[in-house]
Amino acid sequence: MTKKIVVLIITWLVFVFADYFCLPYFVQPFSWLLVCIILLILTVRQVIKLIKEKKNIKANRIINLSVTLSLFVLTFYNFNKIPNSIIEKIDWSISYNKRNQIVKDVLTEKLKPNTKMNNGICKLSFDFPIISNGGNDIWIYQNKTEGTKTIKFWISRGFFEAPQTYFIFTNDNETQKQYEELIKVKPVYNWKLEKNWYRIMERD
Length: 204
What we know:
By secondary structure, this protein is α+β, with helices and mostly antiparallel strands.
């Protein structure tokens, strides 16, 4: 494997993690398109070089083409579905304790919605690792009748018509019933993580 391919892999990994954790939702489709175009061009170049060297094909050429093509497919497939699903599982594990602490702070009202729009958004301090992607905001809804709360941590804030995905904590019975029903209807995109915690994909 050549140094250029090693650099390409490292650069791609940086992009994938930046795309998941840091990039604003309105930038993601453009960065994704740019990376796809670059990888497609590199793949075509490798194919052309392979054809030119057909009488004397070296192992490095096969490896370079395979790696470049694999990165293109991984990036192109369903808007980074494969790498993002892996990072999502890592994200859930790494930030598990921190999210639970934020939930405790919300339940005890140490944290409350704090934007002028009064839309349930609470802006968190921008620490790393980021707890809620696309701005490090969480959304808080309180059922004043029952005294229960639902807290959403963004996995993806979506773009244009794309759905938004969340890690959600809720101790509200009606909300839990809604999520349980959603899990039955679309289990590929929605599931229960543990008691009171869900991974949910929603459309506005």
